[in-house]
Write a structure and sequence with these properties.
36% of the residues lie in helices and 15% in strands. By secondary structure, it is of the alpha/beta class. The strands form 3 sheets. Strands 4-5-6-3-9-12-13 form a 7-stranded mixed sheet. It has a 4-stranded mixed sheet with strand order 7-8-10-11.
Length: 439
């Protein structure tokens, strides 16, 4: 009977079979989720370990190359879009709005359009929030101060609680109190320590070669204005270049650059371009050893000049009211032409060689800037000569900071892609990431 009952049961219906399959599938999904959650949780409690090859690939082959593109005149841009001439940190000679330069309002209407993508505009509030409790240092000549002032005025527009404060050696500095973000500018012309040199009565090796005076440049000693900066700042932006090809400052006959290494004159005496290579090598090594754990180290490429009709001390001027055309750019800056403004590309050759394989990330502003012959103070700079080297503020260096922030966002996004989160306070994270984006 029991056997008969067993065999006399109705076979399972298709609905019953489907319900059973769904139950099994649901259980499998739950089990998978539990395993994934456990792995994710354990990954978060351990020290972050980055997939270096994957991250390097992501950065090197990112969708947008911001350095190649063109300038577009954008009528929708309000003038000025970020800050105006009332920002007190703007050096008088760069305040083209305040000095009524004829095209001052038009300068900021030109927008950089990279090939195949857009360069996001700087978001000052997001920057302050993302880099809360961060120290940012600009180390270099007056062109880095140009960029520093642009960033400061942009941030001050959205956060006015600012206290003047500068770390050791800095020329100027400020802290945005609400966000505990400090930024400072450390002035240095050559990166290395230098000063006047005169021949002594001891008849040393330089005296025996006939040198009577010049400038002693210690290629292996950083200038005191920034020597402590790597110990303090979490983000450092360096530049050098304009003073290395400046015969009006370092006359090769009357007051040449005389290079010393380990306190001894370099023999035979080296020309400036060799001295630059030596300084870059030593300073890159110095920063790598002295920088805070995880510091983001950036080296900005050379800012171009736009003198026409001679150099600055030869009556040169820059009266253009629109950016250069591509063919004009080539004529201005081609090394083959050996022209007045070839300095930028010449310096960059040395920078790229020295930075290759280093811990520095390169911020390439040269190409986009070569077009902007219209964006200098020119005769409105208030000097005896036209200023065709620095930039009007507001102006081009605002776009440099767009590029600067985009690079920092790349660091942040790639890290989030690996870990699902980013902590700007975790210096180890940014340090690991930086090593993958070096020159």
């Amino acid at each position: 009977m029991a056997t008969r009952d067993h065999y006399s049961r109705k076979p399972p219906t298709s609905a019953t079979t489907l319900s059973t399959s769904r139950l099994i599938l649901a259980l499998l999904c739950l089990a998978s989720l539990f395993i994934c959650f456990s792995l994710f949780k354990s990954d978060n409690v351990q020290s972050p370990v980055l997939n270096r090859s994957a991250m390097s690939k992501n950065i090197n082959y990112k969708k947008c190359n911001y350095t190649d593109g063109r300038w577009i005149y954008d009528l929708t841009v309000r003038s000025p879009p970020r800050y105006d001439h009332t920002c007190k940190e703007i050096y008088k000679g760069w305040n083209c709005l305040g000095s009524n330069k004829s095209n001052a309002l038009d300068i900021v209407k030109w927008r950089w359009k990279p090939d195949g993508c857009d360069l996001p505009q700087f978001d000052p509030l997001k920057f302050l929030q993302d880099f809360r409790d961060t120290n940012i240092g600009f180390v270099g000549d007056s062109l880095n101060r140009n960029m520093f002032v642009s960033l400061f005025c942009t941030l001050k527009r959205v956060s006015s609680e600012v206290k003047k404060w500068r770390p050791v050696g800095a020329d100027r500095g400020f802290t945005f109190i609400r966000y505990n973000l400090t930024m400072a500018y450390h002035r240095t012309n050559l990166l290395a320590r230098y000063g006047r040199w005169t021949a002594s009565n001891n008849a040393g090796v330089l005296e025996s070669l006939g040198y009577k005076e010049g400038y002693r440049v210690d290629v292996d000693i950083p200038e005191g204005t920034w020597a402590e900066a790597p110990n303090f700042h979490d983000i450092l932006i360096f530049n050098t270049g304009h003073w290395w090809w400046a015969p009006s400052k370092f006359d090769p006959i009357k007051s040449p650059m005389l290079f010393f290494e380990k306190g001894i004159p370099v023999m035979p005496p080296a020309p400036p371009h060799v001295g630059l290579d030596m300084v870059l090598s030593h300073m890159i090594s110095f920063v790598g050893k002295k920088a805070r754990p995880g510091a983001i180290l950036i080296f900005r490429t050379q800012s171009p000049r736009h003198f026409e009709g001679g150099d600055w001390d030869q009556g040169g001027s820059c009266s253009r009211l629109q950016p250069l055309a591509p063919q004009e750019v080539q004529e201005f800056f081609s090394l083959k032409n050996n022209g007045t403004n070839m300095e930028a590309r010449l310096v960059n050759q040395h920078l790229y060689k020295a930075l290759k394989g280093s811990v520095f990330h390169i911020l390439d502003i040269t190409r986009m800037s070569e077009y902007r012959a219209d964006a200098h103070p020119s005769a409105a700079g208030g000097k005896k000569h036209d200023d065709c080297m620095h930039w009007c503020l507001p102006g081009l260096t605002d776009t440099w900071n767009d590029l600067f922030m985009s690079h920092l966002n790349d660091f942040k996004q790639v890290f989030e892609g690996q870990h699902g989160y980013y902590d700007s306070g975790n210096k180890e994270m940014s340090g690991i990431l930086l090593g993958l984006t070096s020159g």
